[in-house]
């Protein structure tokens, strides 16, 4: 019984002292509380102690009720990491940081926020600032704390500085101009701006500069202008920065602050000068008239900057041996704005900029910051040429700095001026190229962009070697950009066509999977125009093809080249490179390997199939093998390949006499040959759209498509029988006359008859007519009356053409005819035809 009395006594003393933490530890969990409560309800066997025990039981029952109403008092709740609402901010931070899981942290914060809400609803108990400080910490952790906004308004209106300080801090963190509660503090801020304490004024200025809305700025602008003229330097510095915020919010207030800002330049306090320079910079950027006014202050700014550069050691402002680099940077930035597009202001600051560039130590970050701002100023104003070279040399020194950030900003600045000061930047080409080997990806990218910008006709060979070397080891994310830059540079500055072709082939071999889609047709056009290099190119591409077929773009160009110039490859004679003895079987084996490889895309197989078909007119002993290869793909699952194979099989079986002309060497895209005339005919159209046109054969009514040449990896250009003009002689040469006559014409179509006559001494046999139309025009060719034009004008061949032109576009016409099956076509072109339905002049 004495032990029980001692326990009750300890509990009662704890309750009387209101030490809830100790009481919680004594009582333990809610389960222990329940046992104590049941114990007090048992009948007592000791009447002598009845009155005393009744007293203690009442005390215990009261505390148990408190614990039941506030579970957070239990030691076992939330893993013994909860705290009472009266704990200090430091204790709350310690408990939150000690949470082992996110859920535990969230639980602690929710309970503390509930306690803070409850205390906010009570009368002023002296703990409002304490609770708001805890709430701001909760807000910093990302949890909602909007219910503390009104408490911020109350604390700002408090006369006590400690509460004002927390209230203003809460306003800057919890309020913005979109919150209605921000309007409630306008009057409090206005009153505090006139407060006798500079620290209270500072709180109001900082809050206004942080979250002041446009309405607040308009209402309080006169107060800020008054404080700009105050005698206290501490207040003037804060007022200047607050004025910057007001000008950004309400630009028309700049006129109000201009006189006061000009007078601040005469201050000696560096903090005030810094604020004044920032304010003047903002005013000049917002208003051209203000800019003209402050250009008169350039000499004063120059003297101020010289004083900073030439001043001795000042422990108050010295940073790494540089006197107040923050103020220097701000002054240089203002000078750059004032000297832009103004000769007088630029001349006044040239000497200063040269002095800063030569006397500032760049070994420290502070000095590098001042020099970098000096370089930007020199490049932006109308400075002397020698000063610009000095600025480029400073950036060149930055490239040797161990700090990657400094190297990065140096290359960024050099890239901006490489077009205007190309020769000065060229002096640092070696250092820039060395940056390609840097481990930092951003530095590599900047070095690559700058290296590509430095390419010229003079250094194309040497710089391209470095770029090709970089391409072999560059990160995957830079390969596409590198290949694109190399192609553009080679196209602009290639010293010879052979060098150009070799460079592109090297890129395709190294990074063929990262090139642009237009690389293949561009290279085909380049090879086509380089007539004297056909033999060299086909030999080189054949070697590349038998070495590796995984690079699809390279394989496509190789297949095209073999199909066009396979006879030069089989001939084995090449002066440009060491000739390779290649047999017909070797060439077909290589193409068949491409067709059967799982690495070949459908577009690549299309190139290989077309090349195989074209070789049928360039070889003599393996035609049957070619037909066998083509026929296999007549049942291919790929519709495109199947269609080509069927068409090629039709040529082999029914129109074998036309194969030589159809498989003849095709002109490249946009060339100056007959093919170029055809492309001129379709000028402005999408040359890579497949035109599907039905063509009737000159002998029978079967329909098929005639392929002339392929100019894209997966798109084809088809050449067909000529389109009809209204009425015109389209060809009259060497005794042959071709006339187009319009028979009928409607709003969206016409019927045209083509008539061919021959006045020579011999018959013209194997007549083939071809045409091209825009993709919006539908063309249908009727069967011709024959394929032989009698001599001496004794007969004629006619053919009817049906044109459907729903879009009513104007048409050119071009005609192609072959006097024999194996002869090269003869081309002619007439003027632009008006759309159907329009009259002729």
Protein described:
Its main location: membrane. This protein has a 5-stranded antiparallel sheet with strand order 7-8-9-12-11, with no helix packed on it. Strands 10-13-14 form a 3-stranded antiparallel sheet, covered by helices on one side. A hairpin with a 2-residue loop joins strand 1 and strand 2. By secondary structure, it is α+β, with helices and mostly antiparallel strands. The chain is 56% helix and 8% strand. The chain is built from 37 helices and 14 strands.
In brief, what are we looking at here?
Residues 723-836 form the GAE domain. Keywords: Cytoplasmic vesicle, Golgi apparatus, Membrane, Protein transport, Transport. This protein has 841 residues and is of the alpha+beta class.
Measured distance between first and last alpha carbons = 130 Å
Overall, the morphology is elongated
Task: Report Rg.
Answer: 44 Å
Helix run count: 37
The biggest beta sheet reads:
5 strands, antiparallel
Count of extended strands: 14
The largest beta-sheet arranges its strands as 7-8-9-12-11
Which stretches are low in confidence, meaning pLDDT under 50 for 5 or more residues running?
A: 26-56, 62-85, 668-725, 820-825, 827-841
Query: Helices and strands: which structural class?
Result: alpha+beta
Strand content: 5-15%
Helix content: 55-70%
Mean pLDDT score, rounded? 75
Write the layout of secondary structure elements.
Elements (H helix, E strand, L loop, with lengths): L1 H16 L2 H8 L2 H11 L9 H20 L19 H9 L4 H20 L6 H13 L8 H8 L4 H14 L11 H8 L4 H14 L2 H15 L4 H17 L4 H11 L5 H17 L1 H7 L3 H13 L7 E2 L2 E2 L1 H15 L3 H17 L5 H16 L4 H14 L5 H14 L4 H5 L2 H6 L6 H13 L6 H12 L4 H18 L3 H15 L7 H11 L4 H14 L4 H20 L12 H13 L5 H13 L8 H10 L6 H16 L4 H4 L11 H8 L13 E2 L6 E2 L2 E4 L5 E3 L8 E7 L2 E10 L3 E10 L9 E3 L7 E4 L14 E9 L9 E5 L7 E4 L12
Antiparallel strand pairs: 1-2, 3-4, 5-6, 7-8, 8-9, 9-12, 10-13, 11-12, 13-14
Helix pairs in contact: 1-2, 1-4, 3-4, 6-7, 7-9, 8-9, 9-11, 10-11, 11-13, 12-13, 12-14, 13-15, 14-15, 15-16, 15-18, 17-18, 17-19, 18-20, 19-20, 19-21, 20-21, 20-22, 21-22, 22-25, 25-27, 26-27, 27-28, 29-31, 30-31, 31-32, 31-33, 32-33, 33-35, 34-35
């Amino acid at each position: 019984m004495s032990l029980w009395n001692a326990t009750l006594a300890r509990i009662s003393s704890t309750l009387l002292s209101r030490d809830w933490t100790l009481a919680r530890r004594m009582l333990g969990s809610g389960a222990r509380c329940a046992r104590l409560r049941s114990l007090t309800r048992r009948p007592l066997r000791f009447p002598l102690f009845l009155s005393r025990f009744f007293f203690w039981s009442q005390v215990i029952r009261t505390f148990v009720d408190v614990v039941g109403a506030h579970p957070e008092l239990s030691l076992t709740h939330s893993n013994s990491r909860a705290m009472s609402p009266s704990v200090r901010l430091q204790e709350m931070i310690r408990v939150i940081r000690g949470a082992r899981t996110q859920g535990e942290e969230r639980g602690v914060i929710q309970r503390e926020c509930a306690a803070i809400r409850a205390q906010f609803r009570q009368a002023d108990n002296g703990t409002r600032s304490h609770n708001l400080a805890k709430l701001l910490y909760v807000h910093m952790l990302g949890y909602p704390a909007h219910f503390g906004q009104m408490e911020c308004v109350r604390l700002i209106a408090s006369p006590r500085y400690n509460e004002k300080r927390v209230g203003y801090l809460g306003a800057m963190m919890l309020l913005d101009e979109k919150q209605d509660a921000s309007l409630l503090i306008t009057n409090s801020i206005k009153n505090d701006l006139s407060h006798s304490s500079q620290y209270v004024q500072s709180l109001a200025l900082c809050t206004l500069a942080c979250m002041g809305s446009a309405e607040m700025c308009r209402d309080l602008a006169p107060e800020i202008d008054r404080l700009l003229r105050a005698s206290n330097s501490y207040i003037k510095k804060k007022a200047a920065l607050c004025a910057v915020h007001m000008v950004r919010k309400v630009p028309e207030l700049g006129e109000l602050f201009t006189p006061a800002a000009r007078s601040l330049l005469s201050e000696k306090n560096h903090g005030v000068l810094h604020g004044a320079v920032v304010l003047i910079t903002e005013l000049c950027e917002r208003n051209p008239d203000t800019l003209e006014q402050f250009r008169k202050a350039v000499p004063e700014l120059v003297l101020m900057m010289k004083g900073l550069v030439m001043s001795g050691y000042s422990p108050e402002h010295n940073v790494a041996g540089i006197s107040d680099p923050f103020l220097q940077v701000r002054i240089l930035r203002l000078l750059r704005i004032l000297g832009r597009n103004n000769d007088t202001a630029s001349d006044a600051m040239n000497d200063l900029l040269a002095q800063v560039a030569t006397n500032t130590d760049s070994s420290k970050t502070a000095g590098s910051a001042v020099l970098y701002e000096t370089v930007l100023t020199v490049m932006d104003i109308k400075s002397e040429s020698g000063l610009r070279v000095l600025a480029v040399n400073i950036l060149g020194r930055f490239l040797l700095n161990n700090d990657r950030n400094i190297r990065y900003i140096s290359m960024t600045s050099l890239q901006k001026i490489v077009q205007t000061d190309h020769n000065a930047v060229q002096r640092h080409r070696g250092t820039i190229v060395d940056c390609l080997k840097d481990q930092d990806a951003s530095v590599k990218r900047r070095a690559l962009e700058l290296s590509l910008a430095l390419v010229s006709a003079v250094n194309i060979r040497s710089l391209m070697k470095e770029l090709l070397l970089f391409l072999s080891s560059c990160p995957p994310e830079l390969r596409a950009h590198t290949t694109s830059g190399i192609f553009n540079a080679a196209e602009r500055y290639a010293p010879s066509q052979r060098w150009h072709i070799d460079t592109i082939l090297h890129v395709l071999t190294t990074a063929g999977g990262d090139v642009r889609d237009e690389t293949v047709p561009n290279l085909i056009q380049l090879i086509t125009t380089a007539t004297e290099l056909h033999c060299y190119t086909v030999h080189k591409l054949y070697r590349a093809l038998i070495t590796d077929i995984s690079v699809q773009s390279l394989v496509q160009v190789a297949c095209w080249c073999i199909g066009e110039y396979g006879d030069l490859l089989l001939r084995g004679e090449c002066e440009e490179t060491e000739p390779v003895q290649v047999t017909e079987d070797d060439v077909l084996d290589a193409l068949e390997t491409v067709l059967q490889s799982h690495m070949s895309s459908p577009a690549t197989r299309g190139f290989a199939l077309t090349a195989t078909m074209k070789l049928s007119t360039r070889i003599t002993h393996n035609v049957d093998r070619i037909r066998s290869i083509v026929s296999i793909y007549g049942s291919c699952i790929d519709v495109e390949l199947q269609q080509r194979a069927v068409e090629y099989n039709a040529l082999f079986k029914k129109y074998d006499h036309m194969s030589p002309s159809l498989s003849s060497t095709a002109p490249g895209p946009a060339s100056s040959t007959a093919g170029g005339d055809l492309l001129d005919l379709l000028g402005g159209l999408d040359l890579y759209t497949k035109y599907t046109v039905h063509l009737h054969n000159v002998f029978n009514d079967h329909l098929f498509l005639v392929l002339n040449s392929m100019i894209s990896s997966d798109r084809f250009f088809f050449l067909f029988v000529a389109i009809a003009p209204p009425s015109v002689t389209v060809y009259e040469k060497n005794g042959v006359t071709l006339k187009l006559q319009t028979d009928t014409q409607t709003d969206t179509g016409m019927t045209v008859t083509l008539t061919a006559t021959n006045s020579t001494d011999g018959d013209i046999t194997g007549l083939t007519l071809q045409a091209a139309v825009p993709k919006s025009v539908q063309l249908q060719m009727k069967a011709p009356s024959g394929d032989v034009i009698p001599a001496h004008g004794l007969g004629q061949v006619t053919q009817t053409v049906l044109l459907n032109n729903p879009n009513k576009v104007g048409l050119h016409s071009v005609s192609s005819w072959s006097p024999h099956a194996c002869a090269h076509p003869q081309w002619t072109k007439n003027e632009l035809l008006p759309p159907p339905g329009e009259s002729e002049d």
